[in-house]
Write a structure and sequence with these properties.
DUF4012 domain-containing protein, transmembrane helix, membrane, DUF4012, 616 residues, 3 domains, 44% helix
């Protein structure tokens, strides 16, 4: 029999799932469960779990690496500080002894911060800048340790035995010349490292990290400056000491009892001959041998005439009226050519405090008249007692010249500790008490960019302000003048830096000062009462900067306003009776952002020639 067809037969057959998707959407309201969404959610959960595990592992790895890096960097920062101190104190053996320790610390820190996990995390918001800063500091310090610091052994090689100077006073230029290329490479490497670290913005960093990073920034900046100086020194010194051919220099002894912008009037002139590291004093002259000229020895600019008058070019003694030592040297060289005859290869100047520093290294000397001089009594004997003993200014000039000659010959003969001589000259240079100029343009280009070059107007000191003092009474009373300069109220904005500079002058001579010789108290042509001191205060703005009015309390002080070499200048005169003091303030503004304001000063018996204010 055949099965009947129809609905009855259909009812008897089991239902089948429709193949048409449209059909699957019809029927009852209850959803039909599927396995695919479940599989998708399981995949998501597994992925999240894996990512979570990876994040935990990565975080742990970062923490581990961070601890490694932080520990190494904290140690390395301390070593860098010691190296900086060792360089500044000319203790190269200290530096070399710490090299292995520094190399190990910086290499460990660099390894800890250079893997892919650290690099990826450095791009994250929040924590990223901190990780990037640590990596940058680690790499910079490692570069310094691996590539630059080993060359510091050259410094130790230079200083073998008694240092630069042998027992006969000869300076061995061979090791210095050999060290020059390595020191130049070291200076370049440290400069690059310093630039990379200086570019770190510490504002978004965690407080615990920002402080150490700023310390490394400052430390590397100082090490870079010191190494740059060592590199320049090693390149310049051999030729300037006559390694290639003999050189002739004029040595100026400045007299701080009669102030000039550079530290004092020219008190004596000596001629030095340098040949293959040997320095000989071959001639000495008193300033009396250089008479005043009817016209400046070289043409002066209109700015120079307005600010300094023609005295700058007519008297050898007054060539230090300008704060720019290259200009002083050019004028001195021409005075020598005009009055004495012959040419020179350079000019060197030292003030009495610098000479006293040198005596700390050489020990006492005895001048031609039999007077024993040491670091403790030199300044008093030279700038005070001699004027009481010697009523004739010609005798005083001769005494000054004899003292300068005696001390130089002691240094040249090898007397005292050679390393200490270098240290003390470095100390004096850092206080702007030593100046050097070369007539060779290539050498002068290097010197002009250094502290010892003294190129305030013609070198790289455009960002610096200046406060300079010139005696206005033609006497020798500045021995009793105490000076103090401070920088107050430093404000650093995005587009400018503003500071208030305070200048304190106090005058405390003996009660019988009016009875001193006339050439000490001031010549009769001066309208100043006998025993008073007159000081011309000359202040300079940075290049393209500006000066506010000079104030004494709430009173503005009038004076000359001018411009010299792109700098605003103000000149005023201070008159002080015995026992009086005066305080002046003026505002300095630069129309560019800066982290600090350096102020060049006249080095006096009580103040160095440089002061720097750092932005808060």
């Amino acid at each position: 029999m055949s099965r009947p067809t129809g609905s009855a037969g259909a009812d008897a057959m089991p239902d089948a799932a429709p193949d048409d998707p449209a059909e699957r959407s019809l029927g009852t309201d209850a959803p039909t469960p599927t396995r695919r969404p479940q599989r998708a959610w399981r995949l998501v959960r597994r992925t999240l779990l894996v990512v979570g595990v990876l994040l935990v592992v990565a975080t742990g790895w970062l923490v581990f690496r961070g601890v490694q890096a932080a520990t190494s960097l904290m140690h390395a920062e301390g070593v860098v500080r010691e190296i900086r101190d060792g360089l500044s104190d000319v203790r190269s053996e200290t530096v070399v002894a710490r090299l292995p320790e520094l190399e190990a610390d910086t290499a460990r820190a660099r390894r800890a911060t250079s893997d892919p996990v650290w690099a990826a995390a450095s791009r994250l918001p929040g924590i990223g800048p901190n990780l990037a800063a640590v990596a940058t500091v680690s790499a910079a310090l490692d570069d310094v340790a691996r590539l630059a610091m080993p060359t510091l052994r050259d410094i130790d090689a230079i200083g073998e035995a008694q240092g630069l100077r042998g027992t006969d006073g000869r300076i061995d230029v061979g090791p210095i010349a050999a060290a020059a290329p390595g020191l130049a490479r070291a200076a370049d490497t440290v400069a690059a490292a310093e630039r990379s670290v200086a570019a770190i913005d510490t504002r978004p960093l965690l407080d615990r990290l920002a402080g150490p990073v700023e310390q490394v920034q400052g430390g590397l900046a100082e090490v870079s400056e010191l190494l740059d100086g060592a590199a320049r020194f090693s390149a310049l010194l051999p030729p300037m000491l006559g390694a290639d051919e003999p050189r002739t220099y004029l040595l100026l002894s400045l007299n701080s009892a009669e102030l000039r912008a550079a530290g004092g009037i020219v008190g004596a002139v000596a001629v030095l001959r340098a040949e293959n590291g040997v320095l000989d004093l071959v001639e000495q002259r008193t300033t009396v041998e250089f008479p005043a000229l009817d016209a400046p020895v070289l043409p002066l600019t209109a700015d120079e005439l307005q600010v300094h008058s023609d005295r700058l070019g007519r008297w050898l003694q007054n060539t230090t009226l300008t704060p720019d030592f290259p200009r002083t040297a050019e004028l001195v060289r021409e005075h020598w050519r005009t009055t004495i005859g012959g040419d020179v290869d350079g000019v060197i100047a030292l003030d009495p405090v610098a000479v006293a520093y040198v005596l700390e290294a050489t020990g006492a000397v005895v001048e031609p008249g039999g007077l024993r001089l040491d670091a403790g009594n030199l300044v008093e004997e030279l700038l005070h007692q001699s004027y009481l003993r010697l009523q004739d200014p010609l005798e005083a000039d001769a005494f000054y010249t004899g003292v300068a000659t005696t001390i130089f010959r002691a240094v040249g003969s090898g007397q005292g500790d050679a390393r200490r001589v270098v240290e003390q000259l470095g100390r004096a240079s850092g206080e702007h008490r030593v100046r050097v100029w070369s007539a060779r343009p290539d050498e002068q280009a290097v010197l002009a960019a250094t502290t010892v070059g003294g190129a305030f107007l013609s070198g790289g000191a455009d960002a610096a302000a200046g406060v300079f003092l010139n005696d206005g009474a033609a006497g020798k009373l500045d021995y009793f003048l105490r000076t103090d300069v401070a920088i107050e109220d430093v404000r650093c904005d995005a587009g400018s830096t503003t500071s208030v500079v305070r200048v304190d002058l106090s005058y405390a001579p003996p009660a019988d000062i009016a009875d001193y010789p006339r050439y000490v108290t001031g010549w009769s042509g001066s309208a100043l009462p006998t025993g008073w001191v007159a000081t011309n205060l000359t202040v300079y703005a940075p290049v393209a900067g500006s000066l506010g009015p000079v104030m004494s309390g709430d009173v503005g002080i009038g004076g000359l306003r001018a411009v010299e070499r792109g700098r605003d200048v103000q000149v005023l005169t201070s008159w002080l009776a015995p026992g009086q003091r005066a305080t002046y303030r003026f505002e300095v503004r630069t129309e560019r952002p800066a982290d600090e304001l350096p102020v060049w000063l006249t080095p006096t018996l009580t103040s160095p020639g440089i002061l720097t204010a750092v932005c808060p």
